[in-house]
Amino acid sequence: MTVDYPTAGAVSGLRELWKEAFGDSDLFLDAFFAHGFSPRRCRCVTENGAVLAALYWFEATCGESRFAYLYAVATAASHRGKGLFSTLLADTKEVLKEAGFDGILLVPENEALGRMYEKFGFTACTTVDTFSVKAGANAIDLREIGADEFARLRKAFLPQGAVIQEGAALAFLSSQCHFWTGPDFLAVGQVYDGKLVCMEFLGNRMAAEGLLRALETAEGTFRSPGEQQPFAWLLPLRTGCACPEYFGLALD
């Protein structure tokens, strides 16, 4: 059994493991491996050529600190309960420490999974609000933008102490979602079955109703900075690693 960066020949096994663990389509995986994947941002456990466990990360910053945002952590169903995640995480921690990262961030699917991660030293560190609204009577001025402009504008809308995500994370996100801006807000999301799922809404929440009307969508759910529910968990990699005050752009 080996823990290492994936070889070119391991990509098919990574895809198979991802599909088993998360059920995503080939179209989604094509986008991830084209825009979000780098073998230098992935560690995996292999045995006799089979991929048994894997994780990926995107680079992020907060002030002077560097963080790795862990993404798509998975173990093959046939090998769960055998300590593979513990082995993989221990290896990844050492790799990231050596690379100069200050901490690891991840977003559990639910609080129960968050409690599982707490056994490995993670603690809940940031919170968000979620809210739902229906389209208002009047559309708001709306402009769709690209990933580079979104990254630039986002820094002005983020609260202090927020994690900055750019580069590969936004390149991948742009293959799955739309970025919009208006007079006093910034949003990223996608319409599914006539409903907007807004992964991050920054700025004036009152503009959400007008955004829906502009998109000709009846209703939507929005995630924004707030204190309503735990969201990201942190594992420090060095003594004194500061906890970010906001992390809200999870690639879910």
Characterise this structure.
With 252 residues, the chain is an alpha+beta fold. The chain has 7 helices and 13 strands. A hairpin with a 2-residue loop joins strand 2 and strand 3. Helix 2 (26-36) packs antiparallel against helix 6 (168-174). The two termini are 30 Å apart. The model has no long low-confidence stretch (mean pLDDT 95).
Return the average pLDDT rounded to an integer. Answer: 95
Give the overall shape, derived from the CA principal axes.
globular
- In whole angstroms, the N-to-C terminal distance is 30 Å
SS-derived structural category = alpha+beta
Q: What profile does the largest beta sheet have? A: 13 strands, mixed
- The number of distinct helices, counting runs of at least 4 residues, comes to 7
Order of helices and strands: EHHEEEHEHEEHEHEEEHEE
Strand elements, count? 13
Rounded to the nearest angstrom, the radius of gyration is 19 Å
Strand content: 35-45%
Uncertain parts = none
Q: Which range best describes the helical content: under 10%, 10-25%, 25-40%, 40-55%, 55-70% or over 70%? A: 25-40%
